[in-house]
Design a protein that fits this description.
The protein is α/β, with parallel strands linked by helices. It folds into 2 domains: about 170 residues, HUPs (Rossmann fold, 3-Layer(aba) Sandwich), CATH 3.40.50.620; about 90 residues, Pantoate--beta-alanine Ligase, Chain: A,domain 2, CATH 3.30.1300.10. The protein has 10 helices and 9 strands. The strands form 2 sheets. It has a 6-stranded parallel β-sheet, sandwiched between helices. A 3-stranded antiparallel β-sheet has the order 7-8-9. A hairpin with a 2-residue loop joins β8 and β9. The protein is globular, with a radius of gyration of 19 Å.
Length: about 280
């Protein structure tokens, strides 16, 4: 397994792979890897001849007062997980290389970023799309894999890739959960013991919503209200948003259809957690 930090060296390595007919699979991350990331890497190993993992804590997607400086990092453990998953190259550039002092170009997707996390975290997705576009231009993958826990991010990256005619196949992979149902996240490490217990309100609320839909409820409002009531029972929980949206457009839905996805963002203590689920069976 190689570790590359230099942008031009990574580009040369990718061009060499393409010249020899290799298919490049790519998993971009901010590090502090967990089983969710490992599942993406294992799938990438199946689909590509050369598997590249990037580890880069992207400063432009963090807002004022967010956890850029304290975001968890453990490069040594990350390399162990990467090696076990069969990664060929870890690309770990420095921030000053990705964003030199005279950097002045950003990529922004309109519409899809006006709601959900885009509304509560202004500028976040501009940072995400900019860095992903840059990483695509550096790594030059044929396929890139993302987790569906960040549902809006996946939708935004799909749209950016399509709109800019980037020759990358975008694959969304299922949410990986802890045994008790909490969606795996690098930020789960922030949760104190009691906060960790209260965080299970998210998966409980998703279960309650699905139960209502299975019993025939098709109006979004009572489902949203039930989800909010369950989460608000926890003293450490503060709801950022609870919305039922169309999976493709992220527009709010009044009636639950096969494309309806429930999306949640909740702060438990100081930790912001997100989760989502399709509400009808078979999705």
């Amino acid at each position: 397994m190689e570790t590359i930090s230099d942008i031009r060296m990574m580009q040369r390595r990718s061009m060499q792979a393409h010249r020899t007919g290799q298919r490049i699979a790519f998993v971009p991350t901010m590090g502090y890897l967990h089983e969710g990331h490992a599942s993406l890497l294992r799938e990438g190993r199946k689909r590509g001849d050369l598997l590249v993992l990037s580890i880069f804590v992207n400063p432009t997607q963090f807002g004022v007062g967010e956890d850029l400086d304290t975001y968890p990092r453990n490069f040594a453990r990350d390399t162990e997980i990467a090696a076990a998953a069969g990664v060929d190259i870890i690309f770990a550039p420095e921030a000053k290389a990705i964003y030199p002092v005279d950097f002045a170009t950003f990529v922004e997707v309109e519409g899809l970023t006006d709601t959900l996390c885009g509304k509560s975290r202004p500028g976040h997705f501009r940072g995400v799309t900019t860095v992903v576009c840059k990483l695509f231009n550096i790594v030059r993958p044929d396929i890139a894999l993302f987790g569906r826990k960040d549902f809006q991010q996946l939708a935004v990256i799909r749209r950016m890739t399509e709109d800019l005619n980037l020759p990358v196949e975008i694959v969304g992979m299922p949410i990986v959960r802890e045994p008790d149902g909490l969606a795996m996240s690098s930020r789960n490490v922030y949760l104190a013991v009691d906060e960790r217990r209260q965080a299970l309100a998210l998966i409980d609320a998703i279960g309650a919503a699905r139960g209502m839909v299975e019993k025939g409820e098709r109006q979004a409002t009572p489902v949203i209200e039930a989800v909010r009531r369950r989460i608000e029972r926890e003293p450490a929980a503060r709801i950022d948003y609870v919305q039922i949206c169309d999976a493709a457009t992220l527009a709010d839905l009044a009636t639950i259809t096969s494309e309806a996805v429930l999306l949640l963002a909740v702060r438990v203590g100081a930790t912001r957690l997100i989760d989502n689920a399709f509400l009808l069976q078979g999705r």
